[in-house]
Hints:
There is one protein chain. By secondary structure, the chain is mainly α. Helix content is 73%, strand content 0%. The protein has helices at residues 10-22, 27-34, 38-51, 60-94. The longest helix has 35 residues, at 60-94.
Amino acid sequence: MSQKRRQHSAAFKYRVALEANKGLKTTSELAQEYSIHPNQISVWKKQLQEQGPGLFERGGNKAQRKQEEEEAELYEQIGRLKMELEWLKKKATQFD
């Protein structure tokens, strides 16, 4: 019979990875304490060291990417509007 896969919150992952990073307990001790496979703790610890506390938040990267895309689109629009304004200024001086 298969077990249902457990999902852990970002705060839980962060707490376990932080404890593993401190080194006060071994990975095996933490694995027994939290009923998690030692390899999973090692993965979370490595991710924590590489990417920091915002790592375990769901959708955090998606929200950031979406914001960056919107900013890029707005900067493009600003550039186009500046070009149109310069063109209009140039054409307006011809009629003066």
